[in-house]
Amino acid sequence: MQAKQLEQLLHQEIPITQALAIEVLELEQKNILVKAPFDQNKNIHNTAFAGSIYTTATLAGWSLLTNYLKINDLPGSVVLASAEIKYQKPVNGDIIASCQLPNTDELSQFHQQLTKKKRGRLTLEIAVTEEEKIKAKFIGQFAVV
Amino acid sequence: MQAKQLEQLLHQEIPITQALAIEVLELEQKNILVKAPFDQNKNIHNTAFAGSIYTTATLAGWSLLTNYLKINDLPGSVVLASAEIKYQKPVNGDIIASCQLPNTDELSQFHQQLTKKKRGRLTLEIAVTEEEKIKAKFIGQFAVV
User: Fold this and answer.
1) pLDDT over 90 (residue B21)
2) Which of B16, B62, B81 sits opposite A52 (nearest CB)?
3) Nearest to B51 among A13, A55, A81 (CB)
């Protein structure tokens, strides 16, 4: 998929992403960059809302994995099983979430699970950054079912 | 605050809560019930979206604590420092998040921190239920700063 195609898919299939004004800035096989603009996602303290930060990170992980399945013609749907997030510093502007697929060993194990059992699990780390500083760290366990 | 007052505060100060169509169903000093309707918060699998489930839980915790400060004339603003969530089963309808303040010991310790240091931390557990079954469990560390 191209970044814009993925963005359209999100807006169509997960309606709340339209209100968050989610943009897919970059999409490659092994990495993704997702943005939620500040104005739609601010809170009472005039910083980015914790729920929007989490949601943007979730969408980055879900999208990267969904794209990986598609590219590799693998079966199944991606769901988030559990996650944890640490808000290290306030985000004062747009929310930018970035995610890379893990190293080759972990990824090929996941790939094998999927081809053998048609199910698999993968942990993804997602960073929310502002001016290249990490503001929040998200770790999600994604499942393919 | 009354439930409707709190709902208005959320809609005004955290704009994305309007798009999520957040409703505060119940608000008492020690417990809260917050709803996000299904239609605005569904995902590609036609179940409730993981990001909306998390956000509804976050708003329940934040609101209950903000109301507690107000009632008890305590200083400070509530922020979410970190959280974890487990999605145990899909939510097939409206998202309902419920939260109770912890037992008296924990609460009075928190109360003392706030009066002495004007800062404090409290862990809140929030359950997302459907037809009285728990579908997701959220644990959040809230800070008053």
Assistant:
1) yes
2) B16
3) A55
- Which tokens hold the place of B40? 């605005």
What amino acid occupies position A121?
A: R
- C-alpha B145/C-alpha B142 separation (Å) is 10
Number of domains in chain A: 1
Q: Tell me the three state secondary structure of residue B46.
A: coil
* A31-36 sheet: strands from edge to edge: A23-27, A31-36, A95-100, A120-130, A133-144, A78-87, B78-87, B133-144, B120-130, B95-100, B31-36, B23-27
Q: Distance (Å) from the C-alpha of residue A120 to the closest C-alpha of chain B?
A: 16
pLDDT digits (tens, 9 = 90+) for B55-92: 999 999 999 999 999 999 998 999 999 999 999 999 99
Interchain CB distance below 8 Å, B14 and A79: no
C-alpha distances out from residue A14 to A44, B5, B51, B103, Å = 25, 29, 10, 38
pLDDT, tens digit only, all 145 positions of chain A = 899 999 999 999 999 999 999 999 999 999 999 999 999 999 999 999 999 999 999 999 999 999 999 999 998 999 999 999 999 999 999 999 999 999 889 999 999 999 999 999 999 999 999 988 999 999 999 999 9
Q: Which of A1, A7, A16 to mutate to test the interface with B (most CBs of B within 10 A)?
A: A16
What ipTM goes with this model? Answer: 0.97
Contact A85 B83 (CB under 8 A): yes
What CATH number does the domain containing B112 carry? 3.10.129.10
Which structural domain, as residue segments, surrounds residue B71?
3-144
Amino acid symbol at A91? V
